[in-house]
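<given_protein>
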Amino acid sequence: MKKTVVAAAVMSIGLGAAQAQEAVVKLGSAAPLTGTIAHLGKDLENGTRLAIETINAQGVTIGGKKVRFELIGEDDQADPRTGTTVAQRLVDAGVKGVVGHLNSGTSIPASRIYDQGGIPQISPASTNPKLTLQNFKGVFRTIANDVQQGGALGSFAVKGLGAKKVAIIDDRTAYGQGLADETEKAVKAAGAQVVAREFTTDKATDFNAILTKIRATGPDVIFFGGMDAQAGPMLRQLKQLGVNAKFLTGDGGCSPEMIKLAGDAMTATTYCSMAGLPLDKMPGGAAFRDQYRKRFNGEVQLYAPYAYDAAMAIVKAMEKAGSPEPSKYLPELKKSDFAGVTGNVSFDGKGDIKEGAVTIYSFKDGNWVPM
């Protein structure tokens, strides 16, 4: 009996010593986990979580010490003010890096908090060019920006869809308005006319007033800069008003949820863009989809692969630097160059992904299909 007790005590001491030798490094994730686009925020957090769980399962040593990563997820509610509160909370919690935010409108003000705290931030979803034009040393993104995406959308509307008259609507967020501005520039550059420029909000559900005004201008294409929570109902209301223009939106509406929300208003004349390659075309896309399904019992929405690569970039930089401290690993993060799920992950001098692809999708047989 005494031998058993002693053996148990020795095992307990050994386990405690092993745990003591294992350093815990906290990484933050920030995205809307409640509200109308919570499904996209959760997708972002899931991608980050999957990367951390994969790293922990493989085991990682940084600077000669075994390290276990811990994820601290925060809900920024897609709100700029809440975003800064969440950012400060993550800094105060001692995170060594942040994957997020989703919305440009929260990423941009939050980035100042991270910069002041010396914490690198990689957004897998925020596309407004302003994010990386603030001269903050530790701000990056793993997705193409709105200059690239808006240029592709505007060119496609005119050259791909033959539009001579284009109406543009945005939700007045940093993301929606920024993407609409770049799309408008590209439409005009391609020789078409912008016959209307209207705006709504990211909380609105009734668009009849602005859509009635747009109907009177007779557009060939209507572009909406915003998220699926507004794009779906908007498309329904366009159908109810008898507007037959082609409908085009950006990555915020290029989701399975958009299809659900729009219902039978989705037709073959509905298009969207994604800043990146289709999941099936990503080098690690097929394996990532299987891994995601197994872990979360659901489908990838939009941003999970980019969040996964963002978390991996942070950890790889820590490994190369031999330290999880931001001041030590940031120089290595800037030099990132590895094969990720989404493609090659490397950043330019501003922090933008170097090889940012843009894909146009059309609606066919109940799904978004890359053109």
